[in-house]
Design goal:
Layout lengths: L1 E2 L12 H4 L10 E4 L5 E8 L6 E8 L9 H4 L4 E6 L23 H11 L3 E10 L1 H9 L8 E5 L5 H5 L1 E2 L2 E2 L1 H10 L6 H5 L6 H4 L14 E6 L5 H14 L8 E6 L8 E2 L2 E2 L8 H14 L11 E5 L12 E5 L8 E7 L5 E2 L9 E6 L32 E4 L7 E15 L5 E9 L5 E10 L18 E14 L4 E7 L25 E8 L2 E2 L1 E6 L6
């Protein structure tokens, strides 16, 4: 081990430090044995002076480096960074998070235990990291009751529904391109072999493990991040159902961001206040729990979130940071905007006895992805007019709003549907239509018809029979400005963001086995398809 003593402030933490392997490193590594004898490459950076010290641990999927260590050792905190199993210089097989949680092998817990046994550790260990480096923290938390704290940035809470499958549909762009880029494509076959929520995916569902978690944590996410809902769920489950130490000691920061902070998102330029120093905030959180320094972070409200608005109208409501004591931050009224056969989207329910709209879904010619919560292709709030004219996209739109409409919370679309195929998918997008006609994507989602009643087992719908299907669009805080229109776009594909449905009952398409589907959305008085918005009630004086 080598002592690294160059000095920087805690507030200098940056997201890029977690995602870059090309950083200076101290001499090493130390090979830390796991419970099964496999040794993981680990670098240890100690402050000057006599210990023992509190420790910040980063378990890295992307390689070790010491550039971040300097910002901790300056403040009397040791820094430990480790290659996860089968990655970098670590031994073992790369099983992509499989040994990082509460299963038979618990590399995170083993590493924390080893650190606490070292003479240079005073017993306080915190963890931090973003994306994959955040996911390993989420997975280790239920079996590391010794943890003092965690700083978890842009990380999922449950792989099924969040990372691998959403609405029962394979997240093709996210999983396949990422796995291939990082050299872990060998795991894709096993993930694809479990298209339903089963015991395999229970190993990656930290929401169900919340009662076992004892660590305080700060959770950071973005409205267009790939793990947006997972970040919120991590906070809520720990804050409300966590074990002693975790419950009531969670923080949530939700910003107008992608999988990182940029001012140009999709086809929008955010106001200058889009940024929030969550790096310094996280540093203050770690400092409080590791060193006892009162940084003021724990006096802050538990939730800090950005409410979006018209980005081009300075006087428009929204485009501001807010705080709250919980998520959601206030009670809302689930308000339906009904889809009408004439393309209208209205608060009045339909009165037609047998209204519907039908389109042809050809999996060989899917609707192309244009924005959304992506990682490896363009992400964010893109203008949808390029794909709007397609015959397989149904568009529903309100009249220009007479006054602003605020929504905060979970957004869903309830569809009454039928198909002539064995199985199919339905997609939905929430659109903010600007006065100049731009159709800006805010949220989207997808649902496989055979999983309309749950994800544990498929239930094929007989061709022609009508069923209710709920499409989860995840969450947002947004004020539609006066003069804007609210729109919903419905289709059956969004590729390559989501894998296409072959319409034959199979979970994945195979060459030569694709078939077209005639898909119908019903819009009748007794089948009122609707956008369900979490509307904020009128404020009282």
């Amino acid at each position: 081990m080598t002592r690294c003593t160059r000095r920087f402030g805690w507030a200098g933490l940056v997201l890029a430090a977690f995602l870059t392997a090309a950083m200076s490193a101290c001499a090493g590594p130390t090979m830390v044995p796991m419970s099964d004898g496999v040794a993981l490459a680990t670098d240890v950076y100690l402050p000057e002076g006599e210990g023992p010290f509190p420790v910040v641990l980063v378990r890295s999927f992307y390689g070790r480096g010491g550039g971040l260590a300097e910002q901790f050792t300056k403040n009397g905190v040791a820094f430990v960074i480790q290659d996860t199993r089968g990655r970098g210089d670590s031994e073992g097989e790369d099983l992509v998070f499989h040994t990082d949680g509460w299963g038979e092998r618990q590399d995170g817990a083993d590493t924390v235990r080893w650190i606490r046994e070292q003479p240079w550790c005073n017993g306080k260990v915190g963890t931090m990291g973003a994306s994959a480096l955040g996911i390993v923290q989420v997975l280790m938390a239920p079996v590391t009751p010794e943890l003092a704290c965690q700083a978890i940035w842009v990380a999922d809470s449950s792989f099924y529904g969040g990372l691998s499958y959403r609405g029962g549909v394979w997240r093709k762009e996210l999983c396949e391109i990422w796995a291939e880029n990082v050299g872990s494509a060998h795991r894709l076959a096993e993930w694809k072999a479990h298209p339903t929520y089963d015991a395999f995916w229970e190993q990656y569902n930290a929401e169900a493990q919340a009662e076992r978690i004892t660590a305080p944590a700060v959770h950071v996410g973005g409205w267009w991040d790939i793990f947006q809902q997972g970040t919120i769920n991590n906070f809520v489950t720990r804050q409300e159902r966590g074990g002693e130490g975790a419950r009531g000691n969670q923080k949530l920061i939700m910003g107008p961001w992608l999988h990182g902070k940029v001012q140009e998102v999709g086809d929008l330029r955010l106001p200058d206040n889009y940024d929030f120093g969550f790096e310094a905030y996280s540093a203050g959180f770690l400092a409080y729990w590791l060193t006892g320094v009162d940084t003021g972070v724990m006096d802050e409200p538990p939730v800090r979130y950005y409410t979006l608005g018209d980005v081009e109208a300075p006087e428009a409501p929204g485009n501001e940071w807010r705080t709250a004591d919980a998520w959601p931050p206030f009670d809302t009224v689930e308000t339906p905007l009904y889809l009408h056969a004439d393309g209208g989207l209205r608060f009045d329910p339909p009165v037609d006895a047998d209204a519907s709209r039908t389109f042809t879904f050809d999996p060989a010619d899917p609707v192309p992805t244009l924005g959304g919560a992506n990682l490896n292709i363009p992400a964010g709030p893109f203008d949808q007019r390029e794909i709007g004219p397609r015959d397989d996209v149904l568009k529903f739109e309100t009249e220009p709003l007479a006054s602003p409409l605020e929504i905060t919370g979970r957004v869903k679309v309830r569809l009454y549907v039928s198909t002539d195929a064995v199985d199919t998918d339905f997609t939905a997008k929430l659109i903010d239509v600007y006065p100049d006609g731009r159709e800006i994507l805010m949220l989207d989602g997808i649902r496989r018809l055979k999983f309309r009643n749950g994800f544990e087992r498929p239930e094929l719908l007989p061709p022609g029979e009508i069923a209710v299907l709920e499409v989860d669009l995840w969450s947002i805080s947004l004020i539609f400005n006066k003069g804007h229109r609210i729109a919903v776009h419905v289709s059956s594909s969004n590729h390559p963001r989501f894998e296409v449905n072959p319409n034959n009952g199979d979970d994945f398409p195979t060459e030569g086995a694709l078939r077209t589907a005639q898909n119908t959305v019903h819009l009748a008085v007794d089948r009122p398809s609707a956008l369900l918005l979490p509307v904020r009630p009128a404020k009282t004086p």
